[in-house]
Amino acid sequence: MPGSAPSYSLLDKLSLENSLGATEKTLGYPRRTWFRYLLYTPIIATSVPKELKRILVTETQKQLKRRTLFVGESIESVQTSEAHQKQKRVLLRAFSVKHIQLMEHIILQIFQQLSIVGDHEKTEVNMYPLLLNIVQRAFTQFLYGSSMGLTDIEMAKASESLRTYLDNLSSTGLVVLYCRPLARVLRYFSSNMTRTLEAADHLDVLRERVLRIWMETEDKESMDGLLFRILTAAAAETERPLSTKVVMDNLLSLSLGGIDSTASAVVFNLISLASHPEWQRRVREELMEAKPESTTAGLPVLNAVISESLRLYPPFPETFPRVVQTDNYVMSGYHIPRGTMITGHLMALHRDPTYWSDADKFDPSRFMDKASHAQWYLPFGAGPEACIGKKLALTTIRAAVSEFVRTYSFRSVQPIEPGAWFVGLVP
Predict the structure, then answer these.
(1) DSSP H stretches of helix in 313-389
(2) How far apart are CA 390 and CA 3, in angstroms?
(3) What is the per-residue pLDDT across 266-287, written as a single tens digit (0 to 9) for each?
(4) Which residues of 187-216 are buried (b: 16+ CB within 10 A; e: fewer)?
(5) Distance CA 423, CA 389 (A)
(6) Nearest CA among 198, 207, 203, 201 for reference residue 244
(7) Of the CATH numbers 3.40.50.150, 1.10.630.10, 3.40.50.2300, 3.40.50.1700, which one belongs to the domain with range 8-145+224-407?
């Protein structure tokens, strides 16, 4: 567990001190830089707030173009500010507050159908697969909405296909994505390729159905699925409407970046509450006292618990890498060569005792006062590349945590800590 984090973490175990105000030094490339670049591994990770904000906001760096390999021409991979702003306008228009609040109703419906344990019974449950399934089902329903007209069985199949495709995107999914004819040959030699191909074919059928229904519907503003709302918002761009491919690339990006990370956030919230029964009790009391018409966004104890859990266990412990584009880039006294990959270490920042008292302690009360933590609390990033799905993610987390606490009393049967991560953090 990162505790008192150094300002830099170099993967080649180079030892650097925080040189703020010191003589400028030059940082040479570690060996095998090309190999690290190929593996999407950053060379430098910083947790200094001002440098972190600079990385996230500055135009002197760019994101890795390799991200287009996975998410195409989505907002996560576009390389120009004009294209980024256009897609941002479309997605923000689609992510209306009213539409996002539908997620609370979807989560409630799923929990009403859920049967983990009977009244006055006890059982041990592996939380991560359970919550991943709940979030997956909720996101799929949010994606297609009632406008799609899917039956419960069809919705479950859509959820299963999306899950299969996302799980295999970095392996067989890339072959399916870029060379479907080759995938149809390789399926005879790989059962995993067969499953991925079948999932992709099913998602393609659903996509064509979405487009047909959207084009045939006159009152497009009344359509409630996120797919339909993005298509409508994209068509409203007067100069150059977004293509269907870009719309679908964004949906892949949102699914890839939002489902597993949101499920992890819910699980770590429940782990925190299971380990701190006094806060579990306070959240439950707040939920019981809340008015029926109130939303979870207005519950201070619940939101403080969620903020504290996101501080200790950010779903994405590091920001996406940026690549230095200038020859004279200086960070905290060090010259960073052009082409160096830099990332922000959010978990280290969130546990740095310089900015947080009792940094490793779970203490939601720190988010219940009026003090601002904006400079060193960045679970969703910052600047123009901040998470576009932040409001949807928070709504989903609040709804899932509140329904679980409202329905069940729970505790940890063994200590649970975060495991290793490549992109996202899981128990």
Answers:
(1) 346-350
(2) 26
(3) 999 999 999 999 999 999 999 9
(4) beeeeebbbbbebbebbeebeeebbebbee
(5) 17
(6) 207
(7) 1.10.630.10
